[in-house]
Amino acid sequence: MADLIYLMMAYAAFWILSFALIFSIFSRQKKLNNEVAMLKQLINDNSPQD
Amino acid sequence: MVSETTVTTKTGSDKWGILLNSLSAVMILTGLYLAFVFASPAANLKAPAEQFAQRIMYFHVGSAWVGFFAFFVTFAAGITYLFKRTFVWDNLANSSVEIGLTFMTMVLVTGSIWGKPTWNTWWTWSPRLTISAIGWLMYIGYLMLRSAIDNPARRARFASVYGIIAFLSVPINFMAIRWWRDIHPAVVGASANEGQGGFNMSDRMTFTLVFCVIAFTVFFATLLYHRMRLGKTEHEVESLKQQILYQ
């Protein structure tokens, strides 16, 4: 088991970094989608009424 | 190259995204199986820790390939932006750096972990490792440069030039183990006399390595697709804010 420790550490690093990047992209996307919806609502609210 | 256009089905789902996600997942998991089970052990490595650690190579080399390729994409997109001055090329360059940097971090971390049982050290200032660390810092600088400039056009222009210059680190990094004395072994071609931890690859090992490099390329394409969609949304937010400001 001790001989496998380096192998396990390296692959754990790969998965941790991969999921960190994936999570970062998707959470930023979600936040920006909400911001876009809010800004569009603001534009609609402020546009002159006929 | 990955297109920014999203193709949606009638239900509104992202067809390309789902396809790329699925393909990536299958290929990476298959690569994992090949690396752990299918690939034969390196016969010339005697210590069990070193033999097991050798299997790090398949993901270490795959990560390095993606890192170098991502920085090449930034280099090419930067040149194209300077000619065309359209947002899509700046988005491609920026997205590629973020992904490339993540993979280069994987390279440095997995390489360090592999180095301990092989070279009995976590780190050494050999040409390859030093240039890898410098390259990593240069691309951190790329992201810092972008965050320091508010004006989108100026940011894109400066980042393009920086990305073109920073790419010089990649071919130098690749050739470092061939030009100078280095403890890092060569995967392709002969190692220097000082190279430690190298081995002759069997057919199974070669197949596994090539498969993992392809799998990582598909994974890169998937991440790039999603990161570029994010960049497009960031651009949309900037445009909407401008619209509100001048309403």
The number of strands of chain B is 0
Name the largest protein-protein interface in this structure.
A-B, 30 and 37 residues
| Spatial separation of the terminal alpha carbons of chain A | 75 Å
Biggest β-sheet description of chain A: none
> Helix- and strand-based class of chain B?
mainly alpha
Radius of gyration of chain B: 20 Å
Number of helices of chain B: 8
Sequence of secondary-structure elements of chain A: H
Tell me, briefly, the overall form of chain B: globular
Helix content of chain B: over 70%
Which spans of chain B of ≥5 residues are poorly predicted at pLDDT below 50?
A: 1-12
* Alpha carbon gyration radius of chain A: 22 Å
The largest sheet of chain B, given as strand count, sense and whether it forms a barrel, is: none
Which H/E pattern describes the elements of chain B? HHHHHHHH
- Main structural class of chain A: mainly alpha
Average predicted local confidence, pLDDT of chain A: 91
- The backbone outline of chain A, from C-alpha atoms, is rod-shaped
Query: How much of the sequence of chain B is in beta strands?
Result: under 5%
Give short descriptive properties of this protein.
heterodimer; A: 50 residues; mainly alpha; 1 helix; 84% helix; 0% strand; rod-shaped; B: 247 residues; 8 helices; 74% helix
Topology:
The complex is a heterodimer of chains A (50) and B (247).
Chain A: H1 5-46
Chain B: H1 15-38, H2 48-53, H3 57-84, H4 87-119, H5 127-148, H6 152-166, H7 169-179, H8 203-245
Structure summary:
The complex is a heterodimer of chains A (50) and B (247). Chain A has 50 residues and is an all-alpha fold.
Task: Please explain how this structure is put together.
The complex is a heterodimer of chains A (50) and B (247). Chain A is mainly α and 50 residues long. Helices cover 84% and strands 0% of the residues of chain A. Chain A has one helix spanning 5-46. Chain B is mainly α. Chain B is built from eight helices and no strands. Chain B has helices at 15-38, 48-53, 57-84, 87-119, 127-148, 152-166, 169-179, 203-245. In chain B, helix 5 (127-148) packs antiparallel against helix 7. Mean pLDDT of chain B is 89; it is low at 1-12. At the A-B interface, helix 1 of A face helix 2, helix 3, helix 4 and helix 8 of B.
